[in-house]
Amino acid sequence: ELKVEQNPLFLSMQEGKNYTIYCNYSTTSDRLYWYRQDPGKSLESLFVLLSNGAVKQEGRLMASLDTKARLSTLHITAAVHDLSATYFCAVAAKTSYDKVIFGPGTSLSVIP
Amino acid sequence: DVKVTQSSRYLVKRTGEKVFLECVQDMDHENMFWYRQDPGLGLRLIYFSYDVKMKEKGDIPEGYSVSREKKERFSLILESASTNQTSMYLCASSFYATGELFFGEGSRLTVL
């Protein structure tokens, strides 16, 4: 059964600092997704990682995937307040690409 | 832009009532999903569908059923609502090729 873990679950960081959110998963997969959720809103797609070694960057966020380690990272560079949100990683089960399981989410708060 | 529309943003129902939550997508996606989101529990997959009339159980299907009679529409049915089904319900759709989920705005259901 596919399990997805994230750490940390809560993160408070100062503006201008760098930090990394980690996503581990329990079974083989080469499809991993990162989503952002603002309070009271639905989820917005950030990154789609579809192969080992994939790296995607958008603004101050960079995501990578290591399928051998079953690990993805979301790196935040020089954080700004607008990045405050909850970040979810999600993994598609290798046995069925249709089944996508989410991690518990990382609640990020960027403080001045 | 992909649009996933959920029929109701807010519903209040009584215990034992039958509840229909409807979701429509306009991008000809093969896959459609229903998740529920609860504080501290993240997003949990209820059911998903990979084709018309085809469905598979997610991690928490008990107390729910689904219907997909047309490719663009995926309905979640609570045959007899219970208070523990009070939650935010999120519908999503995706192309099989990438698996990237696109979410609707969510339906907040309260069962009294």
Keywords:
heterodimer, A: 112 residues, mainly beta, five-stranded antiparallel beta sheet, 0% helix, B: 112 residues, seven-stranded mixed beta sheet, four-stranded antiparallel beta sheet, 56% strand
Proportion of helical residues of chain A = under 10%
Q: Which class of secondary structure composition applies to the elements of chain A?
A: mainly beta
Biggest sheet architecture of chain A: 6 strands, mixed
- Main sheet of chain B? 7 strands, mixed
Oligomeric form of this entry? heterodimer
Low-confidence stretches of chain B are: none
The sequence of SSEs of chain B as H and E is EEEEEEEEEEE
- The topology string of helices and strands of chain A comes to EEEEEEEEEEE
Output mean pLDDT of chain A.
Answer: 94
Q: What best-fitting shape of chain A do the alpha-carbon axes yield?
A: globular
Strand content bin of chain B:
over 45%
Describe the structure.
The complex is a heterodimer of chains A (112) and B (112). With 112 residues, chain A is mostly beta strands. Helix content of chain A is 0%, strand content 55%. Chain A is globular. The termini of chain A are far apart. The mean pLDDT of chain A is 94. Chain B is mainly β and 112 residues long. In chain B, 0% of the residues lie in helices and 56% in strands. Chain B contains no helices and eleven strands. In chain B, strands 2, 4, 5, 6, 9, 10 and 11 form a seven-stranded mixed beta sheet that branches. In chain B, strands 1-3-8-7 form a four-stranded antiparallel beta sheet, with no helix packed on it. Chain B starts with a strand and ends with a strand. The mean pLDDT of chain B is 95. Chains A and B meet through β5, β9 and β10 of A and β4, β5, β9 and β10 of B.
